[in-house]
Amino acid sequence: MRWTRSALIVRSVLAAAVTTAAIAGLAGSGITASAAPAELKTVPFEVSGELPIYPKALWSNGSSGASVRKVEARLVQLKLLDKQYMDNSFGTLTRSAVKKFQSSKGIPPIGYVDQNTWTKLSAVTHEPTQAELFPPAPVVNGKKLDARCATGVALCIDKSTRKLRYVVDGVVKMQLDVRFGAQKTATREGGFTVGWKSRNHVSTLYDSPMPYAMFFSGGQAVHYSSDFAARGYNGASHGCVNVRDLAKIQALFDQVKVGDKVIVYRS
Question: What are the catalytic residues (predicted)?
Fold first, then answer.
């Protein structure tokens, strides 16, 4: 056993020596050898044509806070970013907007804000006003809707008033009566987006029609309910947001897009 262990050690040493010699031979012949291929990266700037160097980032992917919101507000002014994505967080959409701005100004599209980008962005935009930074929430019958409904396109669904309001850039375009799930199958509250739509959907779980369904949280969707139209608030859904006005939800279905916000809250 001792002899076998010693033989293995000697074999490893010899293998290492052979490898070293092979590399030295290649070097002597002018051929460069490497253990693994190096990852090549494209960089926006060069020094002496050799050394890559990146400008210092002021705000980049993952940054957050009031300063990021001001950058986003300026990008909104240039229509490079939709107002609904002005959220204090430097994410994918903000990065894409920054790259578009940089390309338009002849700056390498590095996707983050350095001093040069910030100087040029500041020169072609104005200091954001308070209303631009924090658009006021829509007001209906003297009462404010959820602040998340103030920007972009949103299905603003208020459990307290049992109303769904279709809001575009702070303006209420349509209002519908809605019904929610019973206590054991409650409609979830929070901020969501429309994940997918189905015009003639039928529930496989309950074997019931769900026409004009706009799904926002798992199996929960906004959809037309003939039961709600017939019985009103005497019944309840299995968690979905029921609409009883067929003509209105037909029109709403055609206007809402996948990715639009869905805000379910209590006022």
Answer: 223, 240
